[in-house]
Amino acid sequence: MILLKITWRSLWNRRISVLLTLLSIAISVSLLLGVEYISKQAKSSFLNTISGTDLVVGARSGPTQLLLYSVFRIGNATNNIEWKTYQELANHKRVKWTIPLSLGDSHKGYRVLGTNQDYFKHYKYANKQPLSFKAGEPFNDVYGAVLGAEVAAQLGYSIGTSITLAHGSGSTSFSEHKNKPFNVVGILKPTGTPIDRTVHVSLEGIEAIHIDWKAGSPVAGFEISAEKASKMLLEPETITAFLIGLKSRSATFRLQREINEFEPEPLLAVIPGVALAELWQSIGQFETVLRVITVFVLVAGLLGMLTTLLSTLNERRREMAILRAVGAYPWQVFVLFLLEALVIVLLGCLIACIIVFAGVQLAQPYVSAEYGLHLSTWIPSGYDALLLLSVTVLAVIFSTLPALIAYRRTLQDGLTVKV
Amino acid sequence: MKIVELNQLHYRWKNADRDILNIPEFHVTQGEHVFLRGESGSGKTTLLNLLAGILAPSSGAIRLLEQDLHSTSAMQRDRFRADHIGVIFQQFNLLPYLSVLENVTLPCQFSARRKEKAQDMQASAKQLLDHLQLDEAMQKRVVTELSVGQQQRVAVARALIGQPELIIADEPTSALDTSTRDRFIELLFTQAEAQGSTIIFVSHDPYIASLFPRVIELSEINQTS
Fold first, then answer.
1. Between helices A285-312 and A272-283, what is the axis angle to 10°?
2. Could you give the CA distance from residue B62 to residue B80 in angstroms, rounded to a whole number?
3. Neighbour count for residue A249 (Cβ, 10 Å)
4. Taking chain B, what is the end-to-end CA distance rounded to the nearest angstrom?
């Protein structure tokens, strides 16, 4: 008990340098915990991009590619699916609902997704959360557009804004569908998924803007007005991909196989959860890199503590002689240094936990409003506890160096120390 | 009772080619105030460390309070020192981050025996400090605000608390001016006598020697040279 009291008082006596050491440890430990938290959150938000969908179907390519263009709006499809095929599968007896997806156009760098009302009815993300509107409603005519939260916020659009779509996916496309402007009829709430960066229009709208186009460019001298186009038969010939919700999830594998073996056309069906997990494995490497960096930061923090402890050794020589004179054992001198490191590192860990917890709590409303990401409250997991424990053990191991030096000196010096 | 008894004591530092101490016979009886004079390098410090049980003799016997100290383990010697010996250094006797009272009661934290003998630690410490002419106001000061003379008196109180049988003082007056020094010695004597503690006082100040009933030249008892 007296050792703890001496440790505490001695630390308090040197509080400024101790405080700095404490802070450097607190910061490196909170970094360690923070990285752990963020990678966990990133993973869950990544895996939550799409939910409630049983199969994603596209032209035959790789599962990752299919997932990237259909769910993340990254890259392009190599091939499209015949509308006829889509119709056939949409009417399959095990299928409850489908959402057609037609990609290929863009607006100021944001991807345009052609779909139908079923998208707003059936698309779910995170924990089977449906899309909800911040303003307006789903489109119900040819030239209506629904914007993702980020699109509206970044471009400053509101209900009623007129936008033109560009052919292709670049941000500075030269071929714009100027003659057929779209009208913003709805703006979605943030979801924290690629939906926020998507402009949604009807399949008919996509068809209408391409009606007087051929092979990716307008046909000269052959222009059909927007009004006229909207009255034509706007059934698409092809779509890029579609999502399937099943009546019973137990049929997932059977239908997947059926689609993959679909005779008239080569198709690929993937289970989003499985494909997402695979994709995460390949892009999740940054976690490891971050972890390695934070471990180095932590070691730097602990070395800082070691330096502080070592630098006090000389000035504390007298202190140790006094303690020996009043009857302290050499091992008590040794323990004194270990205790000192232990107190510093435990306080550092405690402060780190407070920093991470408070940081998450403070960031929560902002992140939720701005990015639609729900940050779960930071509660130390078993793994975090293990991290904290290893930090503590490491600190104690580090501090055995000054402790050993003090121990040896106290045996040599005895009661007399030359000052 | 013989408080200190040395018999054929030899001490040689590791790797040294000859003994630094070779004391055939030396003893101090209870209640004596012994002045031990020696030049620096004469083995004075080594002798103090041997008496305090920090060092063990190379050969020969040390008996303190009629107990063999040389045959016990380092830990037992530490325990013995905590229980029976009070030490006063030349200067910087106090832990700067503890209060005056906490400094005085420190030995009781390491020795159950001295704690028990002191009964009420706080009261006992206050009483000692009062007797050493450190009043209530002084007792409340931060240690580093005390003058050197006051600090040395706090050190005396610490050495005396819990009535250890032997007080070892290693040039405790070397940092004090003449008038402070005289008062220090006087107070030390009175308090040590009051509880029957024996004093071994090391110094090379010839004036202080004149205040002691028994003066020993280390060179007279040490046969190395």
1. 40
2. 13
3. 10
4. 31
How far apart, in whole angstroms, are the C-alpha atoms of residue A194 and residue A71?
Answer: 7
**Helical ranges in A71-128 per DSSP H:** 83-90, 118-122
Q: Tens digit of pLDDT for each residue in A162-208?
A: 998 888 766 555 677 777 889 999 999 988 888 999 999 999 998 88
Cβ distance A298 to B53 under 8 Å? no
Q: Which of B55, B77, B80, B89 to mutate to test the interface with A (most CBs of A within 10 A)?
A: B89
Tokens of B53: 């049980």
Give the containing element (helix H, strand E) for B85: strand B85-88
Pairwise CA distance, residues A247 & A227, whole Å: 39
pLDDT band at residue A77 using 50, 70 and 90 as cut-offs: confident
Closest C-alpha among A244, A242, A256 to residue A113: A242
Q: How close is the nearest chain B Cα to the Cα of A283, in Å?
A: 54
Q: Are the beta carbons of A183 and A145 closer than 8 angstroms?
A: yes
Task: For residue A187, give every residue at least 6 positions away whose Cβ sits within 8 Å of its Cβ, in sequence order, or none.
Answer: A133, A134, A135, A136, A146, A147, A149, A152, A157, A158, A159
Q: What separation, in Å, do the N-terminal and C-terminal C-alpha atoms of chain A show? A: 29
The pLDDT score that the predictor gives to residue A354 is 96
Would the CB atoms of A326 and B110 count as touching at under 8 Å? yes
Cα–Cα distance measured from residue A128 to residue A24, given in angstroms and rounded to the nearest whole number = 42
Q: Which among A13, A322, A326 is the nearest to B82, CB-wise?
A: A326
The residues facing A113 across adjacent strands are: A200
